[in-house]
Specification:
By secondary structure, the protein is of the alpha+beta class. It has a single domain, classed as Ribosomal Protein L30, Chain: A (2-Layer Sandwich). The protein contains two helices and three strands; from the N terminus they run E-H-E-H-E. Helix 1 packs across helix 2. The radius of gyration is 13 Å and the shape is elongated.
Length: about 70
């Protein structure tokens, strides 16, 4: 039986407009679930989400939260 480990969560806040940035970065924001400035989403901490956040790190703020 596999152990279930509690994973941390990432709280991502959309803080800077994507106007003037390329379409791929806007698409990444959409994929993260962010559509308007000030939006806040919570994602499980995993490499896929970390990579997406890394691509738009200049447009969002991230806080780690213990599960």
């Amino acid at each position: 039986m596999a152990k279930k480990t509690k994973k941390n969560q990432l709280v991502v806040t959309y803080t800077k407009s994507a106007i003037g940035y390329n379409q791929r970065q806007r698409g990444t924001l959409r994929a993260l679930g962010l559509s308007r400035l000030g939006d806040v989403v919570v994602h499980e901490d995993n490499p896929v989400i970390r990579g997406m956040i890394n691509k738009v790190r200049h447009l969002v703020t991230v806080q780690e939260q213990a599960a």
